[in-house]
Structures are given as C-alpha cells and as structure tokens.
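Page 42, continued from yesterday. The earlier attempt failed because a stray header line got pasted into the input along with the sequence. Redoing it now with the clean sequence only.
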Amino acid sequence: MDSLYRRPLPPALIAFASPEGRALFDAARSAGGMESFFPLIEQFHTQAEPAFCGLGTLVVTLNALGVDPGRLWRGPWRWFSEELLDCCSPLERVRARGITLDEFACLARCNGASAELFRPDLHSVDELRAQLRSATASALAPALVVSYHRGALGQTGEGHFSPIGGYDPTSDHALVLDVARFKYPPHWVPVPALHAAMQPLDAATARPRGWVALRRSPRPTSLLFTARCVGPGGYEALVAGVADLQATLARGPVDDLDAALRTTFTAALALPLTFVRRELALSEHGEAAHTLLAALHDAPLVRRLTGLVPAGLSLEVAALLVLTLPEAVWSPLSSRARAELRELISLVHQPDALRLEVEHLRRQLADLCALDRGAVCDRCAVAS
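This time it went through. Structure tokens are written below.
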C-alpha cells in the first residue's frame, strides 16, 4: 500500500488557517462564539492511532474540561491519554474497529464526565444550531463532540469523531477541530451540512450518528476498581453472557440463593468481564482505599460467599460481580430469594467509600449492558 500525506479539503469546507478561515474566526469571536475554542486548543492533539478518533476526541475534551483521571499517566503525572480509556472496550478491539457513539458516551461516563447524546433523526438542525451557539459561548459548559460520516462532507473515509471549537452565527459555520490532523486540518463546516453528515446510518448500530454534550460529572469516579470487558467479543459478548446467565438461573432452583450464586460464579468464569484494581495515584487516597477494602471484605455478602466461589475466581471479584450485576439478572429467582439477596447487597449501612465505589461500578456495568449489539464500529482509518 502506498503511503499517504494529508488530503485536500473539499471546496465546501474552509481550512481554519486560510484567509477565509481566519475571517470566520474573527467574526465568530466578535459574536461570542469562540469561548470554547481556547480551553480545547490548549489540549488539542492528533489521535494516536488511525481508528482512535473517538478516543483522541475524548482525551482532548476530558483534559479541556479539567477532569482529573485519578490515575497515573507518566511518572508522577495524572493526565488523560488514549491508553487510559479502556473501561468499555479493550484497546486492541478499538485499535482494529474504532468505537460507536454509544461507546463514546460510555467511555466518557466511566472517566468522570456526563454525556448527553443527540441523534439527527430525533433532533433537528435548529436544535444543533442552538446547542452550538450556547456551547461555544461558554468555556465548555458543555463541550460538544460530533460524530459524522466523512463521505457526506465530500471527505474520504467513513465514521469520524471530533470536538467543536467554535460557531459563527452570521455564516452559520461550525469549527470542527479534526483530531486526524495527519489527514485534514481543523475546518469550518456549514451547520446544515454537518447535521446532514450525521444522518447516514452507522453500519455497526443501524442508527444515525450524532453529537454529544459533555460536562464534568458531579459524581466521583471509582477509587480502586473499574469494570472492563475482556476478550475479542467485547460488550456484545458481555450482553449475551449476562442474558445467558439470566436464562440459566431461570432453569435452576429459583428458591435457593446459594445454588443461584454458584451458578452465577460458574458462568462468570466464561463471562468476558473483570474488575481491575487500579494503582492509587494519590497517597491521600490510601486511607479511603483501606476503608473500602476492609468494608468489602467484612461485608455480610463476602461472608456468605465463602465456600461458594470456584477456583479461578477471586472472592473479591465474585463479591463485586454480585454487587453490580443488573437487577434484572436476578428476576427469575423467587421473591424470597431476591429479598435475601437485596439484604446482602444493600449499601445502606456501608461506609461511603464502598457505597460510592459500588454505585460507580453499577453505572458502568449498566452502561456496558445497554450498548447496542452489533459489530463495532467506525473505522476512521485513512481511505484512499
């Protein structure tokens, strides 16, 4: 395959550094539509891999929003980079296939942001325009990210993610800070064309792409643990495995909680899910982590699980699995068995450190299980 060096922008798109692009910048700034540009441009970088446009975009926006990852990047520094964004899909899978809009939102949420999705079949160009006006008039309250089909804009390639850096209301152009800088520079796009470019169906989900509003989440991220899909099957295999577990529980003794837990742990050995314990990045988190682990290992649930967990599965992971599986998984059990389980997994009398950790993991696992089935996803690799 011949090597490639950049691509010319289609005539309808305006390069940021061109004379016309600079004039649009001046007009947008005069109209108050460039306030979001400055925190984003401080963090702007080129995606690290051809299929990492979603991860690269999320790195730019999380760092611009001032979200503390709570994890080490290099040396003593805490900072987001693509290799830290592995809580929804394995990086090897993303490297090969990219991510969908729903996966992007899942990654944002499990890394300290709130994410609100908008799709062009449900939200008009006027709604997009209003959000562009509002978002770019403030310093990332929220940050807007667009996901669109490059071909619809006359570019080469297919699905792509990038943050929005500005909006000029007079010309009705939005500034796309293209993270594939090896291919296209940042450029101005007419808003109707941008909305139209979101409408082609993503072959991975059979749904349009769209845009996402990102804000710093008021909820804390996890202190020690993160749920992670493992293996090549990704979240589709996880969703299928959870559904199979629910069906298996329905075929078993529905009034025997211990039998149901044994069945769950046997299934868990093949479930493409694990709970990874992260290295603490802050010494002051040590006491909270100690409290969390002590509360977890002293919980009534862990005492109940002793002797039920098979070899190959740690008691810690088994307890986290029971604490975080979606409630629907246990629906085949009798009302008596479910009441017994609810008492075991109740967080009412647990320390805040454990309660917050489990609540975060429950949200993360719910996000993973809610992702659409189907092959993933947008490959923004360079197309000839």
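Notes: The first helix runs from residue 19 to 30.
Reminder to self: strip header lines before submitting.
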